[in-house]
């Protein structure tokens, strides 16, 4: 199986390093300095950036010093991973709920109020798209040990879920960076399948013209209504969405190999949504850049989430979304048959996110027009996260170095669709 090879490959590397001391309670730490642990990367000569979803070729930048600020972060985790998975499958296959016992703990998570930390995590995210030495690679520091990184998951049989794993020099923090969508290359077909399953309202059925572009057969048309079968959708997502399942296995391996380390998840676009879904599953801090709304996907995956608390209607998951308002993809506005997303075969229709969102007002500050070409992670790094602040934050005229993270409590996805049991499934 795919995830077994992760342990086989990286266990010798772990054994060669001293284990981190267990942390009884999270506390403010010194800035964290990261080295590459291992990589999942592309064949030699393959350029992942010929895509509106990946990064365009821009000017080279000076290598930054990678120092990240951490802060205590409350997370909720299941008492047992096995009980969580059992509850998820019982909900899927039997339409029955099963209680999951959660406990609250504190870990060191990324300080998302620090602009430099966000910029460095974004650089790690961007580096999931190519090999070290590629012209679009961000050099994090001069002492990278390229011999410590190696290809994984890029052969013809296992193409799809890709990225990098970084670790701090003291072995206390692990960062899993997940690659997003590319239009051309060995992952493009599975990238599109995952995008259209996770982020479309119903099987990528944008309109009547998408008869041959759908990814499942769950729509049930009527003269006056757009109807979609819930059970069919869940089954399609579970059976075909290989990236989430692969990610679960990989994260379990990392938890096993680094039981005392803080594990963070980052990603861009599709990779960001996967980072969020995995962070929600395991109670791990995640930062997602320019990611489509994944809240509906969490429901369709039947992910058990900790109950909401206080006045919030959302579960307390340690997820932070970072995007700007000139990018239509995280806002769910790159929609309709005439949109660039639809013309490329992508039905990115959802807009509601888990956790909290940091939204940069590039329309007001940078005078950008809403354009899918503003989606690439390199654009975000060089023109948004590296730009001098302050940034507008809300309607009151307040400005901040980093906009305040806020919940999307009143967000609604796919309002024109009706969801229910329209195909008369027999639940067994």
UniProtKB/TrEMBL annotation:
Q: Which protein is depicted?
A: Alpha/beta-hydrolase
The uppermost taxa in this organism's lineage are: Eukaryota, Fungi, Dikarya, Basidiomycota, Agaricomycotina
């Amino acid at each position: 199986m795919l995830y077994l090879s992760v342990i086989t490959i990286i266990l010798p590397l772990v054994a060669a390093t001293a284990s981190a001391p267990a942390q009884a309670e999270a506390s403010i730490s010194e800035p964290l300095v990261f080295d590459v642990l291992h990589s999942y990367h592309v064949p030699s000569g393959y350029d992942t950036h010929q895509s509106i979803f990946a990064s365009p070729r821009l000017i080279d930048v000076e290598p930054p010093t990678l120092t990240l600020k951490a802060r205590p972060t409350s997370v909720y985790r299941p008492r047992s991973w096995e009980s969580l998975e059992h509850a998820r499958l019982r909900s899927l296959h039997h339409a029955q709920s099963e209680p999951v016992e959660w406990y609250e703990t504190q870990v060191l998570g990324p300080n998302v109020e620090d602009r430099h930390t966000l910029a460095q995590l974004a650089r790690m995210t961007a580096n999931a798209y190519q090999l070290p030495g590629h012209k679009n690679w961000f050099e994090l520091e001069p002492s990278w040990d390229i011999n410590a990184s190696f290809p994984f998951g890029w052969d013809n049989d296992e193409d799809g879920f890709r990225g990098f794993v970084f670790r701090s020099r003291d072995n206390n923090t692990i960062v899993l960076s997940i690659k997003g969508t590319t239009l051309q290359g060995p992952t493009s077909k599975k990238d599109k399948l995952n995008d259209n399953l996770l982020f479309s309202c119903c099987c990528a059925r944008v309109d009547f013209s998408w008869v041959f572009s759908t990814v499942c057969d769950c729509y049930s048309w009527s003269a006056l209504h757009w109807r979609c079968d819930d059970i069919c959708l869940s089954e399609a997502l579970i059976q075909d969405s290989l990236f989430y399942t692969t990610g679960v296995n990989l994260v379990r391996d990392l938890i096993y190999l680094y039981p005392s380390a803080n594990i963070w998840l980052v990603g861009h676009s599709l990779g960001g949504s996967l980072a969020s879904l995995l962070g929600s599953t395991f109670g791990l801090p995640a930062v997602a850049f320019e990611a489509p709304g994944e809240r509906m996907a969490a429901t369709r995956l039947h992910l058990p989430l900790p109950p909401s608390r206080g006045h919030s209607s959302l579960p307390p998951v340690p997820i932070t979304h970072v995007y700007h308002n000139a990018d239509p993809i995280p806002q769910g506005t790159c929609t309709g048959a005439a949109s660039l997303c639809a013309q490329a075969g992508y039905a990115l229709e959802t807009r509601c996110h888990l956790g909290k969102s940091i939204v940069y007002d590039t329309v007001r500050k940078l005078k950008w027009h809403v354009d899918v070409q503003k989606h690439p992670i390199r654009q975000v790094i060089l023109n948004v996260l590296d730009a001098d602040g302050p940034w507008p934050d809300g309607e009151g005229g307040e400005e901040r170095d980093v906009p305040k993270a806020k919940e999307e409590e009143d967000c609604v996805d796919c309002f024109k669709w009706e969801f229910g049991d329209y195909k008369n499934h027999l639940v067994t």
